[in-house]
Amino acid sequence: MSxxxxxxxxxxxxxxxxxxxxxxxxxxxxxxxxxxxxxxxxRDDIAYVGGGGNKLRKLEFLLGAARSDGADTVITVxxxxxxxxxxxxxxxxxxxxxxxxxxxRTVPRTDxxxxxxxxxxxxxxxxxxVHELAGDADSLAAAEARAAALRAEGRRVQVFPSGGSSAVGxxxxxxxxxxxxxxxxxxxxxxxxxxxxxxxxxxxxxxAAGLFAMGRxxxxxKSYAVLATQGQAEAETLAKANATLALLxxxxxxxxxxxxxxxxxxxxxYGIPTDAMREAVRLIARTEGVLLDPVYSGxxxxxxxxxxxAGHYRPGDAVLFLMTGGVPGLFASPSAFAEG
Length: 340
Ligand SMILES: *Cc1c(COP(=O)(O)O)cnc(C)c1O
What we know:
Strands 1-2-10-7-8-9 form a 6-stranded mixed sheet. Strands 5-4-3-6 form a 4-stranded parallel sheet, with helices on both faces. The N and C termini lie far apart (about 50 Å). The chain has 2 domains: about 220 residues, Rossmann fold (3-Layer(aba) Sandwich); about 110 residues, Rossmann fold. The longest helix is centred in the middle third of the chain and has 21 residues. Helix 8 links the parallel strand 7 and strand 8. By secondary structure, it is α/β, with parallel strands linked by helices. Helix 2 packs across helix 3 and helix 3 packs parallel to helix 5. Helix content is about 40%, strand content about 15%. It binds pyridoxal-5'-phosphate. Pyridoxal-5'-phosphate binds next to helix 3, strand 7 and helix 8.
């Protein structure tokens, strides 16, 4: 069943469909520990702009709506090393919107790699106006206040929430779910699970909403929380999935049991490295030549590896990991990978 996404204004920021590849090198390295699971990766780090990452699918719809509403300026919020902020800056540059970013010092670090390299370096390169705030500041309130001031000068401004995870932004991952269903049919592979990291929850929410609106099981999507606790992430994912469903299929709603989130691989907190994350990033780099990121996909892949080794997936299960990008985060944290 088609989601009829052409109803919504949209720009093209990633090639559609992004490729799905088998993880053969990793699979042979895991050997018996793989327990007969068939591992695949969907390359949502491949893109037309900005170095790539999952925020671009959301920005296709967010900037599409901004363009059709006549906006000339977009403002968004995030942590100092936000991938979403960097990709908003890049896409705004290409699509000719002015861009302002309100970034909070959420992670307790003051070293120059964190404060000036990685995404933060690229924000400047893409020409965004950056406002840095304390870790506990209300960045969305600051962004709204700035938007009001700019509107008073006659500018037409749209503000995107953290991670671009509004209902409109999450449509990007409903579109991804539609792509996965079509690719799965073309490949003759039925995915038992679609795995992603969960930060601002829009990726999981969009996948679950899209699957459900197509008449598929929303529980195919499973996420590992890296920002909120499991309970908070479940509640946020459910609320966002239902807000997205209200756009796709008014009247349809998901239940709490439709949202599968695992909160046990976040470690001490958002952006704080864990040994399992380091192992996952190194293993994929050295067996596949592919880069996970330290904040999101590294922890999610660590969770997937843990669960495969613990026998939580059945022999023969095809498991699709969503590669969500975030490579600049590695350059904000080289010390986390210093060989001991
Ligand atoms: C933002 C992000 C995620 C999580 O996506 P949400 O929609 O915020 O849950 C995963 N991976 C990377 C690299 C990200 O930047």
